[in-house]
Design a protein that fits this description.
- It is found in: Cytoplasm.
- With about 325 residues, the chain is mainly α.
- It has 2 domains: about 5-180 and about 295-325, Rossmann fold (3-Layer(aba) Sandwich); about 205-290, Orthogonal Bundle (Tyrosyl-Transfer RNA Synthetase), CATH 1.10.240.
- It is built from 12 helices and 5 strands.
- The strands form 2 sheets. A 3-stranded parallel sheet has the order 1-2-3.
- The relative contact order is 0.15.
- Bound molecules: adenosine-5'-diphosphate (ADP).
- Adenosine-5'-diphosphate binds near residues 9, 15, 188 and 197.
- Adenosine-5'-diphosphate (ADP) binds near residues 8, 15, 152 and 199.
Length: about 325
């Protein structure tokens, strides 16, 4: 059976981008077709300025939302990264295989470190070494596939390079994984700035739909989405990114094809209205289930404890083998 690993960072509230780009497919497809692990990767949340209490709260909320979205602990392993020491242990070996140059080439590092410096903040070393930890997350489980949004492609490519290099140098230890992407909504864009992705860590929430937004908040945000000065509804990501984003969202929520859906609309207003309602209906069951689970924290704790135990059991032999292979 194929092994799948993927994760989500508790750096903010989960967004519609996280859901459509990743979580929904974990729920509907991945947990049924493979031996799958899904992790709240809290160590990664420490690469930028963070508030300890907030990270703890967001980790818990993210784990609860994964269960609310439909990950079933009977079918897959749901756990918090920092509960399993093997991630940090293997990350160090990855740092010893990777080069400084390849870390500095990562687009996310360049963007995030640029932003930090521009606002006068220092850049944590862990922001640079982040992909080494991510490689460890993936490789510790003998992962075959990593279902992620397109923004993570470069990091998974680097993980492959590190696995191949390690195996060549020290003998075969790691499975070489590959990234897979959802067919629709692989990249959900910010509603107010459709040239940048809808990211949970962005400061300005006006263009971001959060999974726990209530119906009115979703409607308000979608109705205020930036479109363009034209009138015609066409699916053209380059010329009309805001409209294309709405069509992508509508298609992802209703199961249609974005280009075909465009033909059914004579105005942006009607498109926004239908998109808003489709998103409200898409998120309703997740929000309801989240409220039930949040009322029973003992249950979530137990799921996470069992998940970490199972994950540890899988990772430890692989990481031990890697330590032996490098001479430790
Ligand atoms: P974020 O960028 O919101 O901090 P994470 O790094 O925690 O998200 O990623 C969790 C998953 O969600 C990844 O698979 C990522 O590719 C996916 N994802 C995040 N934002 C988007 C988006 N706007 N569109 C599609 N997928 C996304």
């Amino acid at each position: 059976m194929k092994r799948i690993f993927s994760g989500i960072k508790p750096t903010g509230h989960l967004t519609l981008g996280n859901y459509l780009g990743a979580v929904r497919r974990w729920v509907e497809v991945d947990q049924h077709r493979a031996d799958a692990l899904f992790s709240v990767v809290d160590l990664h949340a420490l690469t930028v300025e963070h508030d300890p209490a907030r990270v703890r709260r967001l980790s818990r909320q993210a784990a609860t939302l994964l269960l609310a979205a439909g990950l079933d602990p009977e079918r897959c392993t749901v756990f918090v990264q920092s509960h399993v020491d093997e991630h940090a242990r293997l990350s160090y070996l990855m740092e010893c295989v990777a080069t400084d140059g390849e870390m500095r080439r990562m687009i996310q590092y360049r963007e995030k470190s640029g932003r930090a410096q521009a606002s006068g903040q220092s850049v944590r070393l862990s922001l640079l070494t982040y992909p080494a930890l991510m490689a460890a997350d993936i490789l510790a489980y003998g992962t075959d596939e990593v279902p992620v949004g397109e923004d993570q492609t470069q990091h998974v490519e680097l993980t492959r390079d590190l696995a191949v290099r390690f195996n060549q140098r020290y003998g075969h230890v790691f499975t070489v994984p590959k990234a897979t992407h959802p067919e629709v909504a692989a990249r959900v864009m910010d509603l107010r700035d459709p040239t940048s992705k809808m990211g949970k860590s962005h400061e300005n929430g006006a263009g971001i739909v959060y999974l726990l937004d209530d119906a009115d908040a979703v409607r308000r945000k979608v109705m205020r989405a930036v479109t363009d000065s034209g009138r015609e509804v066409v699916h053209d990501r380059a010329a009309s990114p805001g409209v294309a984003n709405l069509l992508d969202l509508l298609a992802a929520a209703t199961g249609g094809d974005p280009a075909a859906l465009a033909g059914g609309y004579a105005s942006y207003g009607a498109l926004k209205k239908d998109t808003a309602e489709a998103v409200v209906e898409l998120l309703r069951p997740v929000r309801e289930r989240h409220a039930e689970l949040a009322a029973d924290p003992g249950h979530v704790d137990e799921v996470l404890r069992l998940g970490a135990e199972r994950a540890r059991g899988m990772a430890r032999p692989v990481v031990d083998r890697a330590y032996r292979a490098v001479g430790l």
